[in-house]
Specification:
By secondary structure, the chain is of the alpha/beta class. It folds into two domains: 98 residues, Enolase-like, N-terminal domain (Enolase-like, domain 1, 2-Layer Sandwich); 251 residues, Alpha-Beta Barrel (TIM Barrel). Helix content is 37%, strand content 14%. The strands form two sheets. Strands 4, 5, 6, 7, 8, 9, 10, 11 and 12 form a nine-stranded mixed sheet that branches. The protein has a three-stranded antiparallel sheet with strand order 1-2-3, with helices on both faces. α5 links the parallel β4 and β5. It is globular, with a radius of gyration of 20 Å.
Length: 388
């Protein structure tokens, strides 16, 4: 019978949360959750949701997604959203496999032949970005992203700002306009520092400046727009649903939105992209995550015309034994890396059914472990806790 039989969670290195849904007739699909620093909360939420879904028809994806988001009365937040997103993505994987179609074929079909990807350079305290960018260029990428600054105080951070400008300048000196450079501020920049920082960065023509302020600081959006001047403004990785993005889009302050499929869910990401199209806003899906999130994001990228570029995590510094966990990289849990391998810095259309990837289930089960990732302890010189 086409009924949900079981939902299992596998926490695997480097910090990924894979979710498998199995049906009574032997089908299975995979999704991916995030919020790894609250992994027990995520796993618990998935287990609670699984109790409510056992015996349900897996084809009724939208009905199940509505129930998962609305049925508990208290709703919202990244824990519940990511748990629901992982389950919903797995149901799309099952549906595609059952009917022999890639998920994007259910959502209007392919609109492009390739999606440009970008790669990370540098870490949270980036140095030697030129050497790292040269490695990425050798891998075929022409678009990179880096964190701009460490913790930035409200006043007096001129040395940090000048260092950020120096790194951007070094990249432009080395590569000119042959590469695009996105700058991630990670919500670290207080309103008082926005103007001087963005004034320095503008000369180096960033592709965008990302999450310059925290998403809850909506009052700063007008200041951000003025300070950014010619620099495109991007944000949205921590937002959950269309309603969050509509408020952002209505502000007129944002040029690029960055929803993360591991917190929005697959179908919600598609709806968010269609909403952004009305505002002529580009979509650059956030995805410093694992292979399942990336495969799911690509399904939307190939059916939504305003998806402009796709983040991916191959070689990301977080994967190198993060907080004592073993190393693992983007392609390690796949039986065939080809569907998620870039060619000349771009992804080709997924050809397989469902999410278009085949996971090495035995390796996932063997690698599954428990972990505790400590909170970041970033502080300013005076001891005040800083944005990570």
């Amino acid at each position: 019978m086409r009924r949900i039989a079981a939902i299992d969670t596998f926490c695997v290195p480097p910090r990924w949360i894979f979710v498998r849904v199995r049906t009574e007739d032997g089908m299975e699909g995979w999704g991916e959750a995030i919020v790894p620093k609250r992994v027990r909360a995520i796993a618990g939420a998935i287990a609670d949701m699984a109790e409510n879904l056992r015996g349900d028809d897996p084809d009724r994806i939208e009905d199940i997604a509505q129930r998962l988001r609305r049925g508990g009365f208290f709703r919202g937040g990244p824990i519940l959203a990511s748990a629901a997103a992982a389950i919903e993505t797995a149901l799309w994987d099952i549906k595609g496999r059952r009917y022999g179609l890639a998920v994007h074929e259910f959502l209007g079909g392919r609109v492009r032949e390739r999606i440009k990807a970008y790669a990370w350079i540098g870490g949270d305290r980036p140095d030697d970005v030129v050497a790292h960018a040269r490695e990425r260029i050798a891998q075929g990428f022409s678009t990179v992203k880096m964190n701009a600054t460490p913790a930035l105080p409200q006043l007096g951070g001129h040395a940090i700002i000048e260092a950020a400008a120096a790194r951007m300048g070094a990249l432009r000196d080395a590569f000119g306009d042959t590469i695009e450079i996105a700058v991630d501020l990670h919500g670290r920049v207080h309103r008082t520092a926005l103007k001087p920082l963005l004034a320095e960065l503008a000369a180096f023509r960033p592709m965008w400046v990302e999450e310059a302020t925290l998403p809850e600081n909506e009052e700063s959006l007008a200041v951000l727009t003025r300070a950014a001047g010619p620099i495109p403004v991007a944000t949205g990785e921590r937002l959950i649903a269309r309603w969050d993005f509509k408020r952002l889009l209505d502000s007129g302050a944002i040029d690029i939105i960055q929803p993360d499929i591991s917190i929005t869910g697959l179908f919600e990401l598609e709806k968010i992209a269609r909403l952004a199209e009305i505002y002529d806003v580009a979509v650059a899906p956030h995805c410093p995550n694992g292979p399942i999130s990336l495969a799911a994001s690509l399904q939307i990228g190939f059916c939504a015309p305003n998806v402009a570029v796709q983040e991916q995590s191959l070689g990301l510094h977080y994967h190198q034994g993060f907080s004592g966990l073993p190393k693992a990289d983007l392609l390690d849990y796949l039986t065939d890396p080809q569907p998620l391998t870039t060619i000349d810095g771009a992804f080709l259309p997924p050809r397989g059914p469902g999410l278009g990837i085949a996971l090495n289930t035995a390796r996932i089960i063997e690698a599954a472990t428990e972990w505790h990732l400590p909170d970041a302890d970033w502080r300013h010189e005076d001891g005040v806790y800083a944005e990570w």
